[in-house]
Amino acid sequence: MNRSRCNPSEHALGRRAFLGATAAIGASAFADMTGLDVLGTPALASDLKKNQKRVIMLWLAGGASQLETWDPKPGASTGGPFRAIPTDVPGVHISELMPQMAKRMKHVCIMRGLDTKNGDHGGAAKIMMRGRRDEAGLKYPDLGAVVAREMGRADSKVPDYVTFYTQTEGRGMAPGESGFLGARYAPMELTTNNVPEYIRKLETISDLDHKTRADLRDLLSKQFAKGRYSEAMGSHNEAYERVRGIMASETLFDIEKEPQKVRDRYGPTQFAQQTLIARRLVEAGVPFVRVGRAWWDSHGQNFETHQEMVPELDHVMATLIDDLKDRGMLDDVMIVTLSEFGRTPNINASLGRDHFASAWSSTITGCGIKGGSVYGKTDEKGNKVVAENVDAGSLFATIYRALGINPEKNYYVGSRPIPLVNPGVEAIEDVLA
Amino acid sequence: MRLLRLVVLVYLTFTGTRSLIADELPPADRAIDSVIDQLVDARIAAEKISPAPQADDATLIRRLTLDLQGRIPTTVELNEFINSKKSDKRSQLVERLMASPAFDRYQAILFDSMLNSDPGRGRSGSVRDYLTQAMKDRKPWDRIFRELMLPGDDEKTKSAGEFLRARVQDADRMTNDVSVAFFGVNVSCAQCHDHPLVRDWKQDHFFGMKSFLARTYDANGQLAERAAGLVKFKPTKGPEREAKLMFLTGAVVETDTLRELTKDEQKKEKEITEKRKKEKNAPIPKPDFSAREKLVEVALKSKEAEFFARNIVNRLWHRFLGYGLVNPLDQMHSENPASHPLLLKWLARDTAAHQYDIRRLVRGIVMSKTYSRSSQYPSEARPEDRYFAVAQLKPLTPQQLATSLKIATTDPKQYEGLKPDEFEKRIEQAEQSGRGLASLIAQPTDNFQIGVGEALLFSNGDRIMKEYLTDGGSTLLGSLKNEKDAKVAIETMIQTVFVRNASELERKSLVPYAEERKDRLPEAYKQILWAMVTCPEFRFNH
Predict the structure, then answer these.
(1) Is B542 within 8 Å of A231 when comparing Cβ atoms?
(2) B539 CA: distance to closest CA in chain A (Å)
(3) Does the beta carbon of B8 lie under 8 angstroms from any beta carbon of chain A?
(4) Do A228 and B173 make contact, defined as CB atoms within 8 angstroms?
(5) Of B180, B510, B523, the CB nearest to A209
(6) Nearest CA to CA, how far is B277 from chain A (Å)?
(7) Which of the residues A5, A247, A402, B90 has the least number of beta carbons within 10 Å of its own beta carbon?
(8) How far apart are CA A121 and CA A97, in angstroms?
(9) Lowest mean pLDDT across A48-52, A363-367, B78-82
(10) Nearest by Cα to B300 from B142, B163, B151, B183
């Protein structure tokens, strides 16, 4: 209870502090401009520490139906027209719309008992991305920002957190949010196409000039830093030092660089292409990538919508699992499928399903998770969770634990300690590998 | 907790920093700046620290102009100031900067950010236009507080209601935001349990504050208040409780209106809101007993007003010094004492005694020698922030950065030979042209870190190149397009952007850089200018 205040001087002098610290420079540093080194090449997958964990989140925006995906109820009045099929995990059935995933469930954990209380797009998306409700006067960072902070490296040559959100037809329902972690961990957000904003050099400047002016900037910074110190200044210099590396990572966003065979495996859709880019990004060391697929909000014609969208999800997710497995990355990369909520078991007059946050499903695959497990059970019609209830907090605690992050770790906002998940919230041990 | 206090006491006894313990409050009639310097210097002496020297004139005018008006000075202003031999040139400069409408506009932006963590004109909760007018009208801080809390239906103050109106859906947030902004107290911990760090705050305090505010509602576009209301809460132990109208100090306002609304009253409220949907100006009945009015009353009562006075002092101190007397700004409580308790006490008393005159306090702070120290420290043993022995580097706010970038990249002749009102107009134009860019820049917070997004924007953003680093029109680069003498060009750029004269090192490194590119000097100038505006010397107020 009597936690002492965080003393800034206790934080080790990291790279940021070093960059912000007094830089003793002599005239010699100014003498020869042409001798300054250009920045190095971006990090390669082989440079990454073997155990660096990364996350690809497939965000099913608008709310995908659990009944047409992970928790089918064939034969029930709420079940709809689709059958359930057996999977490679004995006793586990999923929707017939997912035949490819049915052969790969041994890698996947299904969470069938999500009860998350909020059925409003905006509010629910915030909860499901942050693992809890914002508090008065305190905005929490979302999962991507936390993973970026925990797994990203200060001098990383690649972005820490990338989010694709191009398909929502202008619905700004679930933007990434770094909350109290601040702009340093804000996502690189792609909302119009597959190339990040400002990553490409303008035509009006040559590559050489682009480099040498950065060297000039460095020179002036060092002159100014003499006798001065501030962490914010350190972050400013670090941000500029990362520019050339991030620019070099533009090729990661270019699927033309991927063999035709691989591209064919994923398929031609935008969701497939962005998922392939996500794989390229995590391979290069990006800690967190979210690929948004929209718009699942099937208040009318639920079954047509899912008949069209689920097979794509099935194919893309199965391909991603195979691809990561082939590359030996499935132990270090986690795939999460998540929405703001699921859909009502009750089928409305327009043959749609409405917002439903009381008993829905999510999946976690790969890194640190017990494949082939199912946690949570809903009743016959899918109206409520009858066993192994999970809320947003415990889902997040489970994800953190699987990634090797202590969910009780504190961040400090001023003097106030703020754990990654709210006090008392625990991970679900049963599904951890 | 008791143990902690004991430890602190022992610590104080042994370190013998006398000024921390007793010492008397300086007399009330002393000038603000002299009291600041006396008390800050005493602490510095007691800690055996040597303070950084005073900043030079060029740094001082840059700092003052950024802090007071949210922009860098022009070369005309710079040269006039550094060449002046007048002994009172600093106070004259401060008076000039504060007399300008640019001061009102910029301080209003800062107050708006203080009230709304996610600020911006037109955003929910923003009261920027109201605050700009309030600054122009020289309204004191207690009056601004009163009008934000009780906007009424007067045309002049109605727009102040947006602050509360944006929060009516979430009374917890309203409670916390009001407590943080006006009293420097974050009681949100006490929402779920008694505050774990602060003995002063119980759940009763949070729900007591909430009781003052929870009757507020939105009657279709206008702030309104119910005649009664009851806030209940479940303590961590024991049965459910009913909250009183209790201020942070524990002061309770007695009332017989602590009750749920009757069905009839609820129906009436609905009718009024419905009516206002049809008739925009349909009147809203005022409650006989206004809980919010009582909150304002109790918060400004002499004993209780300590929270209010200390908060505005600490916030303005932080605004200009870059670090609070109490940090974080929303943790002003007994377990988190001020670095200079006497100074905070004296300034709070002085401010309350002078009717919360914002300008008077601002003037006092920026005239102090404490404010005008250099940010450069001559040795490695840099003193801790809380001694105010060396100036902080303050990251520019979005408005400061955008307006300053406009001024820095404009042909300095554009600001020469202008009549005062023409000059004012041109400054306002610079502010306006910077708005688009400002919206892309992050608002500084505690422990602020600049993200790679900003560096990418400046490195590859079309907007930066087209609007600022272009040689078309009346820009700085335009004025240097035909300048063959690299030395002249670089000296002009340094003066315009960094607001000082070029250093020896810059002459030795930047001039050769340009000369090596003789065949394409304008481009060389452009790269040099880019390096200047992206360098921390420009990005920070130093």
Answers:
(1) no
(2) 9
(3) no
(4) no
(5) B523
(6) 25
(7) A5
(8) 25
(9) A48-52
(10) B142
Angle at B202 between CA B445 and CA B317, to 5 degrees: 30
Structure confidence at residue B308 as a pLDDT band (50, 70, 90)? very high
With 90 as the cut, is the pLDDT of residue A21 above it?
no
The pLDDT value recorded for residue B19 is 43
User: Can you tell me the distance from the alpha carbon of B380 to that of B306, in angstroms, rounded to the nearest whole number?
Assistant: 39
Residue A338 pairs in a beta bridge with A59
The span from the CA of A242 to the CA of A285, in Å, is: 14
The partner residue sitting opposite B505, judged by closest CB among A183, A223, A243, is: A223
Query: For residue B394, what is the enclosing H or E element?
Result: strand B394-395
Considering only CA atoms, which of A278, A272, A332, A294 is closest in space to residue A57?
A278
**Residue in B with minimal Cα distance to A22:** B380
* Total residues belonging to chain B: 542
Element (H, E) at A18: helix A15-20
pLDDT digit string, tens, across residues B77-103: 999 999 999 999 999 999 999 999 999
Cβ atoms B269, B276 nearer than 8 A? no
Give me the amino acid identity at A105: M
Closest partner CB to B456 (pick from A232, A237, A246): A246
pLDDT for the residue B165:
93
Which tokens go with B45?
A: 């002496």
pLDDT tens by residue, A251-290: 999 999 999 999 999 999 999 999 999 999 999 999 999 9
**Using CA atoms, how far apart are residues B46 and B501, in angstroms rounded to an integer?**
37
Q: Which of B176, B454, B516 sits opposite A137 (nearest CB)?
A: B176
| Euclidean distance between CA atoms B542 and B538, whole angstroms | 9
pLDDT band at residue B118 using 50, 70 and 90 as cut-offs: low
Please answer yes or no on whether B448 and A182 come within 8 Å at the CB atom.
yes
CB within 8 Å: B186 and A221:
no
Provide the pLDDT for residue B338: 96
ipTM for the complex shown: 0.91
pLDDT tier at A122 (50, 70, 90 boundaries)? Answer: confident
Flag if A216 and B527 touch (Cβ within 8 Å). yes
Please give the C-alpha separations between residue B396 and each of A204, B68, B314, B327, in angstroms, as whole numbers: 28, 12, 20, 20
**Cis status of the peptide bond prior to B328, with omega within 30 of 0:** yes
Digit-coded pLDDT (tens) for A302-340 = 999 999 999 999 999 999 999 999 999 999 999 999 999
- Scan for tokens 């065979």, then name that residue: A261
Question: Which residues on adjacent β-strands are paired with residue A377?
Answer: A387
